[in-house]
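ok so I'm stuck.
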Amino acid sequence: MSKLTVFICLISVITSAQKIDSCRTDIKHNFKLLTEEGLKIDTIIAKISGVYISKDSFLDLDKKWKDRFSCIRFFENGKVYKSCSYRSFPTKQDFEDLSYGTYSEYKVQNGRIVIESYAGWTGFFLEYYTIQKNTIIRIGTSKRKFNKNLQIEPSPTTTSYEFYHLGL
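replied:
not stuck anymore, here's the structure
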């Protein structure tokens, strides 16, 4: 292997965060939130000038606690990007490369952010986030039904995302 190849590989590792898992990004879903509910976006509540970052810890195979990071990025057209997990704090390059995650739709309703999501083991569902200054906090989920009698199931753990301005 040439010195140039080794140098390029090293620069690539240094300038981007390490990805934790193999993330399925090739799946396209038939989201209905914007179709059913219409575009209800408040970019003061769901800020589009940066990303929201979550940090938590997990126990790896060596039984050592490791940090992991993920992010959520909102767009003014009602689309939202949710990244897969990183082993280190994502770089600006990672925030701009939106290929390591999935897209879905969101709306702002009653001061909360509602994100339509999909998971293979449960199908489509809605996630609910409350907003506190520059932080969004996941408070629960519900089945994907578009009526006023939704039953929100509280999240067993609290996941919060802090806003990080990208200078956009």
